[in-house]
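[INFO] parsing input record for CbiX/SirB N-terminal domain-containing protein
[DEBUG] input buffer:
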Amino acid sequence: MTADMTADLIAAAHGTADPRGIREVHALVRELGRLRPEVPISLGFVDVDVPALPSLVRRVVADSNQAVVVPLLLSSGYHVAVDVAGEAARWPGRVEAAAALGPDPVLVEVLADRLGDLRRVDRVVLAAAGSSDRRALLDCSATAAMLAAHVGRPVEVGYVSGAGQRLAPVLGRCKDRVAVATYLLAPGFFADRVRRLAGDRFVSDPLGADPRIAALALRRYDQTRVRVQAPAGR
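[DEBUG] output buffer:
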């Protein structure tokens, strides 16, 4: 990838059948464009929705552009390690893969803001989508530890799917005052399930199209560009 041209930013989201989630992801991508209007930005999906990531990358490469694929995903895991990294492997020298958004202090800050006033809360349960990939579970555990330090409350993780402790039993053994931090990017099936499982406990909104998350995605893009250009600079 050459250092003297602006690389396309291909945002890679998971996708959802829920129109609320699609609107939120598109709003986040528009926020990226607002922050960096000089960068060509497009949106592809690793699952459920179209354009599928491989076909989108193929079109961008056909236009003779360099590209960085930035996962709009909160943790590492299969989609980052296989789908996103696979596109970089398929187009060496032309496509690079950025890291997942999390774990990162920016996400912790947004989570804390969504939780609001915790003076009447003894502990927080971080409700995550879940994964069968150990890397994603470790990332969620790291986020929980960072959130605990930030809010001054114990935080444990409960997953809606995949491996790891499921949300329902985690909530079931919490006998004190609990708030549920929704560690999801957008509304949809998983967010609705978190609210159902939480019952009458407070549940925060998904992270959403927050400008801080857009700036974080752009930082992942910039970090990848710097990493790629560093050998030439030396």
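[INFO] Helices lie at 19-35, 53-62, 78-90, 105-115, 134-151, 167-172, 189-198, 211-233.
[INFO] shutting down worker
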